[in-house]
Design goal:
Blueprint: E1 35-40, E2 43-46, H1 49-57, E3 63-64, H2 78-83, E4 93-95, H3 96-112, H4 117-127, E5 135-136, E6 142-143, E7 162-163, E8 171-172, H5 210-213, E9 225-226, H6 236-241, H7 245-248, E10 252-262, E11 276-286, E12 290-291, E13 295-297, H8 299-309, E14 312-316, E15 319-320, H9 323-333, H10 337-349, E16 352-356, E17 364-368, E18 378-386, H11 399-411, E19 415-423, H12 429-432, E20 442-448, H13 453-462
Parallel strand pairs: 1-14, 4-10, 18-19
Antiparallel strand pairs: 1-2, 2-13, 3-13, 5-6, 7-8, 9-12, 10-11, 14-15, 16-17, 17-18, 19-20
Length: 463
């Protein structure tokens, strides 16, 4: 057998972040916090923004459900943020077309609940009507104003027009005097009866005919989208308590809309065909269909945080699950969980950052420090065998399948590793029913490389 040649990890060219910590725990114990997660459709989901930041930034656990890896999804349009950067806006900015899509999604949800078209139209019209945009200065005084100037999003004197919800049609503008880097977020209160994110509860309830019809909660856990109308007394309230307060409040967005308007007095000398020009304005509205970015943990990552680090509590319903119950549940959800977790625990303890290797046809991918810094070095296949290497393998490989898998791995600039988890022959299934069985498990690694005969002959000729 040839001796394995270890190649150094390939560092990524562009790295825009610093390395914080290998694990989301504090060595001194002063800032130690226990994060919370929940099992939804056999997936472990973290919903609290602070917990998401803690788990991903320190150890790169999990991935965003709406992002490739880091949970950084935002509803705001990046091009519009750049366009209106002179207005110093601290709210999501989207196009009117995208906002209409959210309205249609909310409409379909309400129709699925049995609301008639008239009620759906009335609910959405009430909920998505334009709102005033009060800004609070540092001294706490609200500042509003009217404006008829033409808006230019590329200048520093950009004004944000927001049509008032009253019948007077007043326009609220963000003038240069009201712009400051430390202004607080707009405090707007919606109608609880029509608030699709009021599933987390509200102190004041609007009285009306639609109050009773809006009691149906349409929080879709399967799609991880909050689109409910009112909270019900159920186990969902405990999940909502784990979400940050900003997720419980309505989401306010600035919608870029176009309107036809006449020129201002100083432009009266322009040509007649230019008397009507398109002006763009930002209108503040409530988002009827909110989409949250959550952190999804693999079963191996979740159990490692609970069992090895003790910094995560996983809930199913109202009570957190114990370590033994998680070991049992995860083994039922994923039949080969015990094998993959033992390999995950072993490589994590060695300083690697294992991630799911499904896209390369393997069990794990091994990163040095984390995916933002290095490319994956190894693709790992984990096998649980006895000390005589006998018995049926979980994934038997023929020469053809092994050659194809190795070719795929090499083309991705990685190396294929076979990780054999060796258990004693006298170990019973009862011992395997608890994670304590890992104390008797031995690990043997085997790196698979392609032997090129022509290269071997040329090296011997040189000698």
């Amino acid at each position: 057998m040839a001796e394995a040649v270890f190649h150094p990890p390939r560092r990524k060219r562009r790295v825009f972040e610093s390395y914080e910590s290998p694990f989301p725990v504090d060595v001194g114990g002063k800032d130690f916090r226990i994060c919370q997660a929940e099992i939804i459709n056999n997936n472990v989901i973290v919903r609290n923004p602070e917990d998401i930041e803690q788990l991903y930034n320190k150890g790169y656990f999990g991935k965003g459900i709406l992002s490739r890896s880091r949970p950084v999804y935002s509803i705001s349009d990046p091009s519009l943020v750049t366009k209106w950067q002179g207005a110093n806006i601290n709210m999501p900015i989207i196009t009117s077309k995208k906002y209409e899509c959210h309205v249609q999604w909310a409409k379909s949800i309400l129709q699925e609940q049995g609301f008639d078209d008239c009620s759906v139209t009335k609910i959405l019209e009430n909920y998505t009507k334009p709102l005033e945009l009060p800004f609070l200065e540092e001294d706490g005084a609200e500042q509003t104003g009217n404006s008829c100037n033409r808006m230019d999003p590329n200048t520093e004197n950009t004004e944000v027009s927001g049509q008032s919800s009253t019948d007077t049609g007043n326009v609220v503008a963000l003038s240069p005097e009201n712009q400051n880097e430390g202004y607080k977020k707009a405090c707007l209160e919606g109608d609880p009866a029509f608030d699709p994110v009021a599933v987390c509860g509200s102190k004041e309830q609007e009285q009306g005919d639609l109050k009773e019809t809006a009691e149906v909660s349409c929080q879709k856990h399967g799609f991880l989208v909050h689109c409910g109308c009112k909270a019900k007394e159920s186990t969902e309230q405990r999940s909502c308590e784990m979400i940050k307060s900003k997720e419980c409040a309505p989401e306010y967005v600035l919608v870029q809309e176009e309107e036809e308007g006449s020129l201002c007095p100083e432009d009266d000398s322009a040509h007649a065909q230019e008397n009507l020009v398109k002006k763009e304005k930002l209108v503040c509205r409530r988002n009827p269909f909110r989409i949250f970015e959550y952190l999804q943990l693999s079963l191996e990552e979740a159990f490692f945080l609970v069992y090895a680090l003790g910094c995560l509590s996983i809930y199913y319903g109202e009570e957190p699950l114990t370590i033994l119950k998680l070991w049992e549940v995860f083994s039922e959800v994923k039949p080969n969980f015990k094998t993959t977790y033992m390999a995950y625990h072993y490589f994590r303890s060695k300083g690697w950052v294992p991630k799911v290797g499904l896209k390369y046809g393997t069990d794990l991918l091994l990163y040095r420090k984390g995916p933002p810094f290095y490319h994956a070095s190894y693709s790992v296949i984990a096998e649980l065998v006895d000390d005589s290497f006998e018995g049926s393998l979980r994934r038997p490989l023929s020469w053809k399948s092994l050659s194809g898998l190795n070719r795929t791995t090499v083309n991705a600039s990685k190396e294929l590793m076979l990780c054999y988890l060796i258990r004693p022959s006298d170990m019973t299934e009862k011992e395997m029913s608890t994670p304590e069985c890992m104390k008797r498990i031995k690990v043997q690694e085997l790196i698979v490389t392609r032997w090129v005969s022509s290269r071997e002959r040329s090296e011997q000729d040189e000698l």
